[in-house]
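ENTRY TYPE: paired fold submission
RECORD: A
CONTENT: sequence, then structure tokens
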Amino acid sequence: MITKIVKIEQVKEQKEALHEAGEILRSGGLVAFPTETVYGLGANGLDAEACAGIYAAKGRPSDNPLILHVANRSMVEQIAAVIPPLAEKLMAAFCPGPITLIMQRKAIVPDRITGGLSTVGIRMPENDVARALIQAAGVPIAAPSANISGRPSPTSAELTARDLDGRIPLILDGGPCHFGVESTIVDCTGNKAVILRPGAITREMLVELLGEEMVAMDPALVGADVVPRAPGMKYTHYAPKAPLTLIEGMPTRMVRAFQREVVRLQGEGQVVGVMASHEVLAGLKEILPAELMADYGHQGNLPSIAANIYEALRSFDDKPADVLLGEGTTDQGLGLAIMNRLHKASGFRTIRA
């Protein structure tokens, strides 16, 4: 299969390209497309066989549920059995945006995409290309991240093509993603808003809207042995090709901690790659070549780190690193989402600075 990449710069002027993409989706094919979080691999969300193609293209386990992307309120009503007051409040505050709401599903939603659950994740992206594609398709689009399952999610069309070239007919290139980490997933089926996956809509933002007593964290986020209720909760994700270990602790101690660990590993004959802040990398220039460093932004600049961590992880795919070291950050605000992804990428291997 030849994969065509189409650059979308002006949504209103490129309706023909979007119409073509919509036709591919309606006919059961797959299209990769940008969102404000990461690139998604889309299929007609009401077509079970089309959604099976997503699992095949990604090598994704069939019991890992998919999120349905919608363009408007009427599409939400098409697939949700009921829209609870809690979901109404979150939709009014954060949709369109980087949030996925879990609700009870209607029978129109194929069992294939729900992982055997009675619920479905619904997301209304704010990215113009994504919204135009959903409208062109005329159906909700089922879409996980557009990568081989378990690999870091792509934040550009180029990174998407690295995994999916030859596997799908079309990639829409809408430029780099804004947030760089997947949407916040919130379960709205109970009395509280339960965060199943942290993202750019932070716990603090939810608390400000709903009150402290109305927001909870799912036990699976802290390692409890419970049935996963959302994409990305059951399987290892975001892993680079070389094993990654995180160094966590006070920012002021990071440089010395990295210097010690790099020297130790090099003494064992290992080729070390480091993904870290500008400040840490500046302290490693004497002992580590530039090609084995990936700069994800300044310490404390959480939006920059979130936007760059996946590309930083992927940057080592073609480099001769035996092991990787990554710098941890705060677990407050957007840092919770960043650390969630980094812990999964590292398999929870950590060193305290």
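RECORD: B
CONTENT: sequence, then structure tokens
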Amino acid sequence: RQLLAAFLRRGGGLLVGAGPEVDGEVLDELLSGAKTGVVPEGAAPRDRVARTWAPTDVRHPVVRAFGAQGAALGRVRFERVRQLRPDACQLLARFTSGEPALVDCPSGDGHAVVVASDLDNRGNDFPLHASFVPFLHETVRYLAGG
């Protein structure tokens, strides 16, 4: 934890798919004060209603890279999501249900981009879409500082 927190403070980047195994308290500790508000699954069970997401900040580098193809991100179906209450984070996308879907949380000179679901095809079908690899590419480019 300490090494990751120091890495972020020095300008590092972290991509988090908030699947069931992610502990929100540990993540908040890593972010040195920026609270993602990842609610423990047992505390706020999420239904399996399918939802999609839509960008809310099209100027952010992760989203901007999709340009006119931004609608492609809306084809991804999320059935199992974690509730985020991003107090100190920039909201990048919301689910169609209104819940935060993608946030950018600062930590020192670094950032963590948090997706409110896993990234391994358990809670959503994102890895099966053509937009998955470009999303990862742009997110890593952003987190690596260009």
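NOTES ON RECORD B: The chain has four helices and five strands. Residues 132-143 form the longest helix (12 residues).
STATUS: closed
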